[in-house]
Design goal:
elongated; about 0% helix; three-stranded parallel sheet; four-stranded parallel sheet; 9 strands; mainly beta
C-alpha cells in the first residue's frame, strides 16, 4: 500500500465499528507493507493513519507500516510525508502478530479496542 498524491484519512479501513465479527470465523489481514513517502515517486503524500481496524474479531499477521524517514535524496522533515498514526484499532478482540510500525508523527499504534 502506498500513499498517493491525494491526501487520505487512511490507506485501509477495515469495518465501520458496527460489526462485532465472529470468534469462530475471524477476519484476517496478512502480509501487508504500507508506506507514506519513500522513493520520491510522489513528492507530496499524506494520510492520517495507514490502517484502521474498526471491526471485532480480526487477526493480523506480518504488517509493516512505514512513514518515510528518508528518501533517495536523503533525510526528511516532519512536514514531509505526514502520517499521524500507523495503526488505529478500535475493534474488540483484535490480535496482531508481527506488527511493525515506524516513524509516524504521533502514536505508532493507537489501540482502544477491548480484549
Amino acid at each position: 500500500l502506498e500513499a498517493g498524491p491525494v491526501a487520505s484519512s487512511t490507506l485501509v479501513q477495515w469495518g465501520s465499528g458496527k460489526h462485532k465479527g465472529s470468534a469462530k470465523n475471524p477476519g484476517v489481514i496478512s502480509d501487508v507493507f504500507g508506506r507514506v513517502g519513500g522513493p520520491d515517486r510522489y513528492p507530496n503524500v499524506e494520510t492520517t493513519s495507514m490502517v484502521n481496524i474498526a471491526s471485532g474479531n480480526v487477526v493480523g499477521d506480518n504488517l509493516w507500516l512505514w512513514r518515510a524517514d528518508h528518501t533517495a535524496a536523503g533525510t526528511t522533515t516532519p512536514a514531509q510525508n505526514p502520517c499521524q498514526t500507523g495503526m488505529n484499532i478500535t475493534g474488540d478482540d483484535v490480535t496482531m502478530y508481527g506488527l511493525a510500525v515506524e516513524h509516524t508523527l504521533q502514536d505508532l499504534t493507537l489501540w482502544t479496542g477491548e480484549g
